[in-house]
Amino acid sequence: xxxxxxxxxxxxxxxxxxxxxxxxxxxxxxxxxxxxxxxxxxxxxxxxxxxxxxxxxxxxxxxxxxxxxxxxxxxxxxxxxxxxxxxxxxxxxxxxxxxxxxxxxxxxxxxxxxxxxxxxxxxxxxxxxxxxxxxxxxxxxxxxxxxxxxxxxxxxxxxxxxxxxxxxxxxxxxxxxxxxxxxxxxxxxxxxxxxxxxxxxxxxxxxxxxxxxxxxxxxxxxxxxxxxxxxxxxxxxxxxxxxxxxxxxxxxxxxxxxxxxxxxxxxxxxxxxxxxxxxxxxxxxxxxxxxxxxxxxxxxxxxxxxxxxxxxxxxxxxxxxxxxxxxxxxxxxxxxxxxxxxxxxxxxxxxxxxxxxxxxxxxxxxxxxxxxxxxxxxxxxxxxxxxxxxxxxxxxxxxxxxxxxxxxxxxxxxxxxxxxxxxxxxxxxxxxxxxxxxxxxxxxxxxxxxxxxxxxxxxxxxxxxxxxxxxxxxxxxxxxxx
Length: 482
Ligand code: G3P
Hints:
alpha/beta
């Protein structure tokens, strides 16, 4: 069995220098579904982290000389292995992060497709030549040959909500462009992440090129920021942690996808049935634990009653419960996450919001909640709940919707629902977000579209071609004709 080699019983190993090594101490990973033990992962010490990074740095020197097609072939084999082990990996996702079974299978499949497309895109990347003389007085005897080269060692840090897809969307562009990768998976999601890494190893990745870092994030994070051989960081997670990384990283490139408070603006002439169905899926898919979840609705007051009544009806159809049964809303990642959502609900209720829910909380399982008549004084208007809750703010005009949308510190994505193209584009042009979706929910896919946040939502651009560019830099060679 592919994954038996990376564990002793429930104790999973760490990968460094091409070898799976035991830990000295272990971190327990417990299922949010039923509290059972998913596994234990090594709590790495500073010296182990340093050794893992240095192995990567040494291996990268050889890897960058391997032809792109050969680098790609290894990654393509990994895509096949992910598909072969789809059921096993999906089962781990369900257990470890409570993602419903069909979304878990889809995450594995999406990742195999992402890998294949990334390799294909990488092969089409070209450099350019520039001829001197264009600036005026300088000589025409100079020619610049511009090509893309790897950065060195890239630190990839992935979040709990997509342990496979958001990890591979960082690791694969980095590797195919000739970099080594130090990979820090989320603690919740570490077990399935290590199994994913084993797919890369089994596909034939050279020893040392990929190292895993496990242990409490704060502890290992501090050491990683001290490592001199890390040349770039690609992080997805909270804005709070992103800010710590940005302060500690020094002068290395960063790509970060951070928090969001994606707004859905519903204009007066919107197709309300379509808007409701998209907003339900955008707000409550994977229990709202997506950076790109719709986290507030700004609806024109003349259609607000009708919109909210349709929304509440549709919310009653949302399946809630066990992720193995394919429910849309499942237990949150931990009890504290559910407590936080309820704290925001209580604040909104105490300030006059109308709260509607389809059921009663059971531990970390929350039923879908709609908070209507949310106002700018309420925390729910601004804070990111990362749970199954949708605040509705009623607005007098599209201008007011834009003003409130832009008052947020975040700028990941936004949606505009409406049929008058001029009014829709007025909002699209003014709203501050990396991506604006017209008549659709906010989402990252398809994976070759650019994905970025502005303001406190991120730095840099992801999405296949953009990730390949971000994982490399240009090198210019100047030829002088003498
Ligand atoms: O939460 C991370 C973000 O990348 C979500 O992705 O595909 O659910 O829109 P997606």
